[in-house]
Known about the structure:
By secondary structure, this protein is of the alpha+beta class. Strand 2 (26-28) and strand 3 form a beta hairpin. It has a single domain (3-84), classed as Alpha-Beta Plaits (2-Layer Sandwich). The chain contains 3 helices and 4 strands; from the N terminus they run βαβββαα. The strands form 2 sheets. It has a two-stranded antiparallel ribbon.
Amino acid sequence: MTFVVTENCIKCKFTDCVDVCPVDCFHEGPNFLVIDPDECIDCTLCEPECPANAIFSEDEVPEDQLEFIKLNAQLAKQWPSITEVKPAMPDADEWNGKENKKELLEK
Ligand code: SF4
Ligand code: F3S
């Protein structure tokens, strides 16, 4: 099992999640973060920290977000690790909750 970052992180990237992860398994892309499923130990700490409610346990990912399970696994191998909190993206509060952000994901 692992936890998964889903669509609402896109263009928000608050990074509060990074602060609590005991095994540093977040990886950072241009406008999105992912969790490496091979490193996540299912500690559950990150899920309530995300202001965008973008993090789910793998078995609770909403149906319209299922593609993010594979995306987290793939992109975690491409993107560098992030271990420290940084400022959210510009206009993160405005993007929080916007629908149809999937196509805005930069890889
Ligand atoms: Fe890190 Fe725990 Fe979240 Fe997994 S569940 S990504 S180990 S904070
Ligand atoms: Fe993204 Fe939420 Fe972390 S917006 S960077 S998953 S705190």
